[in-house]
Amino acid sequence: MSVHRFIEQAASDWMKGEGPNSDIVISSRIRIARNLHEYVFPIRATHEKSNMVLRELLQAARELDTHDFGNFEWFTMRELNELEKQLLVEKHLISQQLANHSRNGGVVLSDNESISIMINEEDHLRIQCMLPGLQLLEAWDLAGQIDDVFESQLDYAYDEKIGYLTSCTTNVGTGIRASVMLHLPALVITEQLNPIFFAINQIGLAVRGMYGEGSEPFGNIFQISNQITLGKSEEEIIHTLNGVVNEIVEQERMARKRLLAESGIRMINHISRSFGILSFATMIDSKEAAQRISDVRLGVDLDIIRGVSTSTLNELMVMTQPAFIQQFAGKEMNTEDRDVYRAKIIRESLASRNLEK
Fold it and tell me: Which residues form the Phosphagen kinase C-terminal domain (predicted)?
């Protein structure tokens, strides 16, 4: 099996689609953590035991092909080089922890890349389902079906009183982590985010950057997810997050309307300048590229910039990351060379769309 088909294109199929509130909600993700009863957690496992877990879970994953989930391919971390691993990280298909630290790790990927199953990461099994827009319930339904396929073949680590047992105590219970990725430029510009984020932290939700825990927000993109799974049902977790996200979506929309009403010409000028820089710059670093792409995405949503699709901008957010730049260039690059090539990728991508201002 070759990983090439999963890394030759920056955008997964789910990035190209549209879902509810997709002007603001980029994606919905459900991740389920599970462990096998007869094995210690990955962090304590010997090389021999973790290799046994890998073989057992890859064998169980073969059953997925008998269900209506599409086709799957699987890879072990040891057969992938460092660039290939990082490309999968940049596409949100595996975690940085799996790429960097897993002994005898593996990943099972669906052909449309909406399903990613990580083996021997922090837990023995992590089932991840991602869909465009605000589709947490749909993602949960899909993840639950996949979980049922594995549970029918495996003996999970489970306690009758507290639920599923996991390496991290914040995942004990349901083992579910629900998250949404949001584009919130207007709330950033109007400086309304801090009180919003403070309020949602008080109800057990966490705010992180585009690549989850440990990552910094850039390009006005934030991930919001539940922090605790113990003592709450899956439905309660999803209902709470859905309600909060819907409220944030409404506040972002109101902030956009106010910006247009109060600072219309300045907003148009700001967005148009960012579009011009992306269209003609010969060097641009990743942070500025993310910010300018965010500006143009806002311009598309406000009908200030026409002729470019949101899916193109989603793809550019991934294409301009360091590993993908080196993948496209076909060689390792230093920071300055990446900045030059990043600008080239953006220029050519925008030019190919025959954009109308």
Answer: 24-255
